[in-house]
Amino acid sequence: MKVAYYAVARGTKPGVYRTWAECEKQVKGFAGARYKKFLNEHEALDFIAANGGKISFRSVGASSTAAAGFVHKKQTLHEVSSTMKDLKRIGSDIAKWQSEGVPVVFTDGACSSNGHHGAKAGIGVFWGDDHPDNVSEPLISGPPTNNRAELSAVITALRTVRLLCDLSSMSLNCHHLGKAV
User: Fold this and answer.
1) Is 157 helix (H, G, I), strand (E, B) or coil?
2) 3-state secondary structure at position 22
3) Where is the RNase H type-1 domain (predicted)?
């Protein structure tokens, strides 16, 4: 028997149900009910989100992490070990670059309720502890989306780099002009 996930986006108690009987109780007699059967829980949750539903119930047997919007992935020891090696290498690279005077910046953007009414987005730019150019602020331009926030954070960092380069260039030119006079 195939596993079924019944998504109720609009009903008495929106949520994911494991049997048609449970689903039917939530939609029968409910004006404007919106529901659909899926073969996996992820698609069921996407359906609810796309149809404006908020999950208030999860049938027994449905994954609590998936219902909370998380995808659970089991990693093998090899995958974890490989990831740890990559992180150590990246950490070493960053330390080397910083010791050579290469600017290192981390950027991030995020959006809660991405793609939905009432979404809020923000950006972060991190140059280092207590750095004066660090930024943590709401997204101020355009509709709030995760992609817009991510790109806005990168653009903010690049504008800072350009400004620093322009100031350095101006300082060099002033220095050369001073010697020429």
Assistant:
1) helix
2) helix
3) 99-181
Longest dimension (CA), the chain: 90
The answer to whether 151 and 111 are in contact (CB under 8 A) is no
pLDDT at 45 over 80: yes
Structure tokens at 76: 């093998």
Which is more confidently placed, 167 or 136? 136
Domain 5-67: give its CATH superfamily.
Answer: Ribonuclease H1, N-terminal domain (3.40.970.10)
C-alpha to C-alpha distance for 47 and 42, rounded to whole angstroms: 9
Enter the CATH code of domain 96-180: 3.30.420.10
Question: Does residue 7 contact residue 44 with C-beta atoms inside 8 Å?
Answer: yes
146's CB contacts (< 8 A; 6+ apart) are 109, 110, 111, 114, 121
Looking from the CA of 23 toward its CB, the CA atoms found within 13 Å total 18
Q: Is the pLDDT of residue 129 over 90?
A: no
pLDDT-based confidence at residue 65 (cuts at 50, 70, 90): very low
Are 85 and 77 in contact by the 8 Å Cβ rule? The answer is: no
pTM of the predicted model as reported, rounded to 2 decimal places? 0.47
Eight-state DSSP code of residue 123: E
